[in-house]
Amino acid sequence: MSKQRKAVALISGGLDSMLAAKVIMEQGIHVEGINFFTGFCVEGHTHAIREHNSSKPNRNNALWVAEQLGIKLHIVDVIEEYKKVLINPRHGYGTHMNPCLDCKIFMVNKAKQWIVENDFDFIITGEVIGQRPMSQTKSKMPIVSKQSGADDLLLRPMCAKNLPATLPEIEGWVDREKLYSITGRSRKPQMEMAKEFGIEDYSQPAGGCCFLTDKFYSAKLVDLWKAQGSKDYELDDIMLLKVGRHIRPKPHFKLIIAREEGEGRFLQGYKKEFISLHCSSHPGPLALIDGELSAEDIYFSARVVARYGQGRDAEQVDITVTEKDGSDRVIQVKPFAKEEVPNEWHV
Amino acid sequence: MQAIKETLNARRLLCPLPVIRTQDKVKQLKPGDLLEVICTDPGVMHDIPAWCRINGHTVLETSSGNHEYIITIRVGE
Ligand code: SF4
Predict the structure, then answer these.
(1) How many domains does chain B have?
(2) Nearest CA-CA partner of A123 in A110, A142, A135, A136
(3) Above 70 in pLDDT, residue A45?
(4) B-side interface with A, Cβ within 8 Å?
(5) What pLDDT, on the 0 to 100 scale, is given for residue A47?
(6) Which phi and psi angles does A340 have, rounded to 5°?
(7) Mean pLDDT within A331-341
(8) Which residue of chain B comes nearest to A69, CA vs CA?
(9) Is the peptide bond before B16 cis (omega within 30 degrees of 0)?
(10) Given a cut of 80, is residue A185 above it in pLDDT?
């Protein structure tokens, strides 16, 4: 009997990678999923933090897809290694701060290492030619194969017929005739395939698989790098960029103000790392201050924070300033009027 | 009741990090061992059981209170 061949599928949680895995499973290949957590993935976070998003299904799509397919899923923490991809992408950024091509190369390279360590035969992805302007054009496909080191062990079942045959096809582990030749941005062929396979429920992320394709998120990241004078980051930094209103009244400090209770609770967890402010005479949000501040800056920040609480129209409100060591004091301030917090301060 | 072999503190981590930490911890345990995971992200109530189902582990108990979520897992084969 011929050897049972095994493939690892890059599972993003979207429909394309789900279909790609399914196509290969149908050919009798043993498939397991792999999902990389860069810290920027859309999965989970905002719904976990923000309460008003709870109407959306509260699930991790990659896990959900794996369960639908009946395959194992390996989630790999690549937060540290991903920094070099994002900070210095060889092929540059996309429309926003998304280094998609370098990201793909990085992930396929990690998958290559994984198959070597786990004795798997090849890698599959849900890439479709022409689907995304930056990383999924026909000319980019060989770049990913080559620079990731996966070479002809990388099979893209969704558009394989438009690409040179890979080793699994040449060796006859999979039947090339039963692979697909989907190109372009239309989602129709995928939806038809889903129907054929009886897949009814799936997620269709609009932009991409991560926050780096988001205009507002990218602006906050650029602001962070500019303020600290270097392109570095820690996980907490990039998590905080997903939460609250970010207001930078002066170059050397920024306020992160909770927009609702869930965010407030999340920000509470950072009170040992940041000076925090909250209104104690009226209901109002918790705010963290990121930066080195003078007494005058703190007073100024308190007036901004007061603007976002229910005491915004009062003559004077009490703002409690809590130091990182937990000690606190109360200051009285006059909330800023709307026009005193210009739009340019909003990051 | 069998004793908890290990307790994993996944407080303040957001999904999927609690799942990743659980996955890494389970690798160090033996089949049949009990692992207790304590989290603050409500998403874990969904994600950890899903992860267990697809990887052959069993969720024995889940509880929550005071904005914490505790999941007890029996490691599968
Ligand atoms: S959208 Fe994000 S995760 Fe997806 S390829 Fe681009 S950079 Fe990578």
Answers:
(1) 1
(2) A110
(3) no
(4) 12, 14-17, 19-20, 23, 40-43, 46-47, 50-51, 53-55, 67
(5) 52
(6) -85, -5
(7) 95
(8) B54
(9) yes
(10) yes
Arithmetic mean of pLDDT, A266-274: 92
Amino acid residing at A295: A
Per residue in A221-245, pLDDT (tens digit) is 999 999 999 999 999 999 899 889 9
A112 φ, ψ (degrees, to nearest 5) = -60, -45
CATH class of the A6-211 domain in this structure: alpha beta
Instruction: Indicate the SS3 state at residue A28.
Output: coil
Across the interface, which of A58, A76, A265 has its CB nearest the CB of B46?
Answer: A58
Is residue A275 within 8 A of residue A324, CB to CB? The reply is yes
- Percent of chain B scoring above 90 in pLDDT: 81
Three-state SS for A167? helix
* Domain with B42 in it: 5-74
The domain that contains B28 carries what CATH number?
Answer: 3.30.110.40
pLDDT of A32 strictly over 90: yes
Choose the catalytic residue: B13, B15, B38, B70.
B15
Residues contacting ligand 1 via CB (< 6 Å): A 98-100, 103-104, 135, 208-210, 212-213
Q: What is the pTM of this model?
A: 0.91
**Does the annotation count B39 as an active-site position?**
no
